[in-house]
Amino acid sequence: MHLYGTQDISKNGHLTIGGVDTVDLAKVYGTPLFVYDIDLIRKRARGFIDTFRKLGVNAEVAYASKAFSCIAIYQLAAEEHLSLDVVSGGELYTAIKSGFPAERIHFHGNNKSVAELELAFDTKIGCIVVDNFYEIELLKQISETKQQPMRILLRVTPGVEAHTHDFITTGQADSKFGFDLNNGQADEAFKKVANHPYLQLLGLHCHIGSQIFETDGFSLAAGKLMKKISDWKEEHQFECTVLNLGGGFGIRYTNEDQPLEPQIYVEEMIKTVLENVQAYKLSMPEIWIEPGRSLVGDAGTSIYTVGSQKEVPNVRQYIAVDGGMSDNIRPALYDAKYEAVIANKANEQRDFTYTVAGKLCESGDKLIVDAALQNAESGDLLAIFCTGAYGYSMASNYNRIPRPAVVFVESGEHQLVIQRESYEDLVQNDLPFTLNKVSVK
């Protein structure tokens, strides 16, 4: 059984995280429950930041907060000197409410509304990542009306698409994000913003995929972006000050996944950028990256209570838990794979095979198919590992199920950072039906 971060098994056979017994956490906060290992998040963040510092390269490491967004995680990101990647007005509003430094916030998205962009200007965020020509015109109008400058990056699709162990160099042109680097769109976007009085173009941004375990794709993309920057310098005397190479760094979910340590990704990126700086005789840009899943993914653990069981003879043994696709849609949406343990029997042999079903009224609501577990009984606690990214952030109230509580643990202490929703929360925005009924003759 693979343990993550500060996870351990106590003398009484219970899974502990951050020095805290998960059985005790379930008693205090109930289940389902998301538990975040803060020490591991800090370690991941410092792995990226310290590598840039050690190599003497100016950088910003921006937490891609779509992975998990709340006031507390933004405050932790600020403590660790991270920047912040937001993709909606809601994420931006939450970040501002948390006290996160606005100048370190970068705003992404392919269809930012006027209201969202005005909020970005009003809160004086650090950068907007421009995604399309429509947005360029909106930014021109808003900045001119407010007579307010805004730093921007142009998001481009470099024709490199990476996923897990594979990457390809064609096919990414068909994306809802960014300006195509190869068909002239990026050049046209550059001309529209390069000399604008209020829009300050810093450089380029790309994002080539998710759950990436190799560095080749990042290196190839960086080379393509640096070539375009060289072209713009030669043709327009443009000096690129920022190169944002996005995120997508992989984590371990199961034995099939073999991620690299943060510093390896950083070292290879820097090596490629330096080679291109020398080849094209450019100034060294500041490098920005956007880890999300790799900062919080394996730091999160979901705790459930086991309820009913069902045996399909010679086919499958089901156990059902008190959550499911309402708090983790990834298995149903992506066929995502996870590993788990019976948290109150973690020291026992995993001699049983179960399919872990959720309680949602959907036959596809299965969290793990054929999980190797200890003998599971009603009332046991099931811990599913690596649910820190895209679990709570994609949670819903389907079937009118309240969203779980979220707890941070560190050095033997625990703190509630998101309260469990109540039934009253579910109806707080509902309004009674009051339309006059029309009689039918």
TrEMBL record:
The active site is at C361 (proton donor). Its EC number is 4.1.1.20. It holds the Pfam family Orn_DAP_Arg_deC. It comes from the Bacteria. Signal peptide: none annotated. It is an enzyme of class 4 (lyase). The modification N6-(pyridoxal phosphate)lysine is found at K66. GO terms for molecular function: diaminopimelate decarboxylase activity; pyridoxal phosphate binding. InterPro entries: Ala_racemase/Decarboxylase_C, DAP_deCOOHase_LysA, De-COase2_C, De-COase2_N, Orn/DAP/Arg_de-COase, PLP-binding_barrel. Substrate binds at R293, R330, Y334, E362, Y390. SUPFAM superfamilies: Alanine racemase C-terminal domain-like (SSF50621), PLP-binding barrel (SSF51419). Gene3D superfamilies: Alanine racemase (3.20.20.10), Lyase, Ornithine Decarboxylase, Chain A, domain 1 (2.40.37.10). Belongs to the Orn/Lys/Arg decarboxylase class-II family. LysA subfamily. NCBIfam families: lysA. Homodimer. Specifically catalyzes the decarboxylation of meso-diaminopimelate (meso-DAP) to L-lysine. This is Diaminopimelate decarboxylase. It comes from Ureibacillus massiliensis 4400831 = CIP 108448 = CCUG 49529.
